[in-house]
Amino acid sequence: MSAGLGFGPVTGPDGRPLDQIRLSGVTARGTHGVFDFERREGQDFTVDVVLHTDTSAAAATDDLTRTTHYGILAGTVADIVRGEPVNLIETLAERIALACLEPAGVVAADVAVHKPQAPIEETFADVVVAIRRERTLLLERAPEQPVPVVLALGTNLGDRLMILRGAVSDLREAEGLTIDVVSPVIQTDPVGGPDQPDYLNAVVLAHTTLSAREVLATCNRIEAEYGRERIERWGPRTLDIDVISYGELRSYDETLTLPHPRAHERAFVLAPWLAADPEGTLLTEAGPEKVASLLEQAPDRISLRHRPELTLEHWV
């Protein structure tokens, strides 16, 4: 058996089936099982993996950094098998699947864990647990260590400065979120949508022990407290808090795409981010790129007006 049997294809954002990277027969000795002798003596486990991804960028550039290094992947799988023992191979398969989802560009992973020496009294050929886990699962998982996040704030209705100050204060008080830097305020023309007032924008750099979904929920809750209504796309709003990036996580989920799909071309995000972190980088489809370089190419950069007199920190 190889991983993926019994599972259909995985489609990408364009609706077409994704490519597959298959790694079969990775065998390592582990001490997994519910019986004492299994923990004591150990046995061989064999793992098959299928990564669902888009290999076109790697193929076009012949660049190893644009794809998954299957040698490293094999070592990761073997290390997990040799690592901390668990009772169930279902748990072992889950751990391997989560590790397989870590490389950028992997949308889903199929994992099959074989336990041919399972302690069964009847004659049998193999015991296999096969699972599929999609990258959106990572959106639900709280990190083991704090993860850096970038949040972009914008407002063009009401008392804009007080709204930004209040939002920063609320983010600072949010459980599981630690603010590192708050950018200066930058004023910009609206991009798209109907005629509307100018925006005040800022970026917050933070670390979090929340899952990506929990960060989004925190931002949505604060938006709602300031009367945010989603009536018209790109319409005016009292407060907008976008999750721009969450560590190195990539997600194509409709409700939380990471990194934010338009951040790389929005000066109202890039300019305050650059002011907060001159060495900042954003993960794009082409790989990590300097925020400074992206800002130089942003179409709306000509509308930037720095507002140093509008402070968000240390105000009374």
From TrEMBL:
Would I find rRNA-binding among this entry's keywords? no
Query: Briefly, what is this protein's role?
Result: Catalyzes the conversion of 7,8-dihydroneopterin to 6-hydroxymethyl-7,8-dihydropterin.
Organism, by scientific name, is Kineosporia corallincola
Under the heading InterPro entries, the entry gives: Dihydroneopterin_aldolase, FolB_dom, GTP-CH-I_C/QueF, Hppk, Hppk_sf
> What's the EC number here?
4.1.2.25, 2.7.6.3
Under the heading Gene3D superfamilies, the entry gives: 3.30.1130.10, 7,8-Dihydro-6-hydroxymethylpterin-pyrophosphokinase HPPK
Taking every annotated instance into account, which residue ranges of this chain make up the domain 7,8-dihydro-6-hydroxymethylpterin-pyrophosphokinase? 233-244
Query: What is the protein's name according to its record?
Result: Bifunctional folate synthesis protein
Keyword field: ATP-binding, Folate biosynthesis, Kinase, Lyase, Nucleotide-binding, Transferase
Per the record, the similarity remark reads: In the N-terminal section; belongs to the DHNA family.
The answer to keyword Ion transport applying to this record is no
**Which NCBIfam families would you find in this protein's record?**
folB, folB_dom, folK
Q: Which reaction does it catalyse?
A: 7,8-dihydroneopterin = 6-hydroxymethyl-7,8-dihydropterin + glycolaldehyde; 6-hydroxymethyl-7,8-dihydropterin + ATP = (7,8-dihydropterin-6-yl)methyl diphosphate + AMP + H(+)
**GO MF term (any one):** 2-amino-4-hydroxy-6-hydroxymethyldihydropteridine diphosphokinase activity
Q: What SMART domains does this protein map onto?
A: FolB
Q: Which pathway does the UniProt entry assign to this protein? A: Cofactor biosynthesis; tetrahydrofolate biosynthesis; 2-amino-4-hydroxy-6-hydroxymethyl-7,8-dihydropteridine diphosphate from 7,8-dihydroneopterin triphosphate: step 3/4; Cofactor biosynthesis; tetrahydrofolate biosynthesis; 2-amino-4-hydroxy-6-hydroxymethyl-7,8-dihydropteridine diphosphate from 7,8-dihydroneopterin triphosphate: step 4/4
Q: Which gene encodes it?
A: folK
